[in-house]
Protein: DnaJ homolog subfamily C member 16
Organism: Scophthalmus maximus
Amino acid sequence: HLSADSGGASQAEIKRAYKNLAREWHPDKNKDPKAEDTFIKISKSYEILSNEERRSNFDRYGQMDESQPFGQSQHHHGFRSFHNSFYFDESFFHFPRSRDFADSKYLLHHAHFNSDVLPDSHKRPYLIKVTSEWCFACIHIEPVWKETVKELEPLGVGIGIVDLGFERRLANQLGAHRAPSIIGLVNGRVTFFHQAVVREHLRQFVEDLLPHKLVERITDDNYLSYLDNWHVENKPSVLLFDQVPIVPLLYKLTAFAFRDYVRFGQVDQGDKHCTRLLRQFNINTYAPTMLLFKEDTEKPVDIIQARGLKKQIMDEFVSNNKFLQVPRLVNQRLFDELCPVKQFHRRRKYCVLLITGEDQAFLPGNKAFVDFASANRKEVLRFAYVYQRQQQPLCQALRHNQAALSPQVVILERRSQAGKVLYRSVSGGWNGSEEDKYRLHEQLELLQKDPTYLSSDATLPELNNEMAPIFIIQWMNAAYEYILQIYDDLLYSNWREMMPILSLIFSALFILFGTVIIQAFSEPGENKPRQPKPKEQPQTEDDINPSIFLFGPCSRPPKKDFVEVTELTDITYTSNLVKLRPGHINVVLVLTNASKNALLRKYAKEVFSFSGTQTLHFSFLNADKHCYWMPSLLRSVSDAAESEGQSDDEEEPSDYAGHVLALNGHKKYFCLFRPVFTGDDPNDSSEDGALHHKLDRLGLWMERLMEGTLPRLQVPAWPSLDETANRDS
């Protein structure tokens, strides 16, 4: 279309026609499958017609492929001159060769930026280019941008492109109001690039985005203290031996990504103050070498040596050694990573925890525990230790609120995010003797053969954050970085980009002074002290509401801090069972008037960690009120079994208190839990205690229910509730 009747067309008419056709057939706007091919043909035609010399060559030789020479060699110089001039014409129209279609993988959108890029900036820096259509200046920085991306992306730097015309909301969030602009993003903080667009400047800009002191300079004088500091930092240590005195950017990026797990140091092999280090670890001076140390500061646990260290190799090297052999639990995040909650479709993982002290007297036992862990490394075992003084709530939950007189080893398995664990204390305590090691090894072998070996349960509180003081220091460093950023923006008079920060500062000041003024001019009557609430009387067991139970502050429920339990009556029976929605299950506890309070308390405790599941409902049935319902239900199952040629010789019990049924009303089947008295607590010989222990194994039964491994008993129809029995409650 563009070449038709172009013999007498002026350059202005050709340019106008090209502009209209290119806008119509641009692949980003036209979804026609032929759009890209048509667009390329339009661009090729414009390349011919927009330059008189090339147009003359085409009329003379009939060639369009720029990879072939034009007829004679003297045209080569003219073609290069044309290409340079067309480079700017193309940028004026924003058509294409200034931005390849391959660049679309870097395009950022508002939702994607906030959900993925912004959180990821805490692990790696991002270099973002802001561009737009009809941007003449954008085309000038394109070659440098491509070279920089080619260099930095393999190192782990994130790359992004924001189209100012199509992503105005994201551009406003970044504070970018003109194109071209180049932005650095790290730790959620935006920094603008103000220097000349040169590859060396962009590389230095990315390095300056990273926090200072990511990598420590190591020499003969400080390497021992650096490696020994694992006690305090609770992290492995990495040493990079390199002939270059400047820390490589790849190493800095790796240190930034794993800064929460591993400490990084660098040794200059050419420094005369590092000769003892090189000699002690027998370092090859011809290739970069990385050593990783854990508790043993004289022997590295892992080593890599290569002339060209790649990002993937370094990431695997560090990620495989993120933790010490026996790390100290210093916060909840570390506990969650080391000892994850058991998933139904994954293999069990057990945490072997040493409760000890930080005094010198405990060091031999702690070292013996590390040696035992190093000799018994298995995929299903995680070894860790805690200082009782630092984590008192956790230790009290595992030691029955008794003061620790000596170190103790506890084997536990986490069962829910709410803090529920199954555990068993290793008898005899722990002092690091060979007898202690043998006893612990024996119990670990028994555990892997029989998961029910963990006979005790508890709800653990959230761990204290022992790294809080370090967090305050990090916050102060971040504040310092923000002050430097504001100063930088003032220096370059970048007022539009500073508006979000200035707006936040003035808003905070306005709220602060507004609150002070309101309090100063408020009437005295408005500040009358509230009368204290009357002291609540302690509830007796008879006053307990059976539908709601509250737990103490140590429990961490998924959604609520109570379990809703509904009584099955003639009013609720149809909606909670007969017409229960497909896919939903009602877990029903059978009790009597005498056992109601004791069983309900234990029932709520056992099912509490499952109360966040939307398809589970919890109810109880009073067998004194509906004494015929359970026998009728079990009899219907027996009749169905006999009709199929099966027999069940088991006698029906006379007391159904403590039985639990998982009822699927839609598919007409149920799973049955029969109470088992374990007698785990010899000190509780009361009647309530005996009732309480009937449900000791209910938690494990609920796990199997969620896994779908329980046997299902089919019923032809649900029996009706018989209201003729005794109703006294």
